[in-house]
Amino acid sequence: MNRISATEASRKFSEILNRTRYAGETFIVERNGEPVAEIRPAKRRAVSGEEVMERIRNAPPVDDAFHEDMAAIMAESRSEISPDPWED
Question: What is the pTM (predicted TM-score) of this model?
Fold first, then answer.
């Protein structure tokens, strides 16, 4: 657990948030040597299959060009995949 001053937390807030989110670090923020706050990763809430299906059902309809756009993206991504060097 990292201990930082309130001044340092203010100056490096973006960095602290990144370290919290991506590295899972926790910070104790102190003022005059006394702990006043804790910055830690937020608990992620699990999403159920029912919630996913509900979101899909309530999603706005796609426009007519969606299929063509997806086909173009897939074709482009296939061309970027290098062949398997171990495949004979």
Answer: 0.51
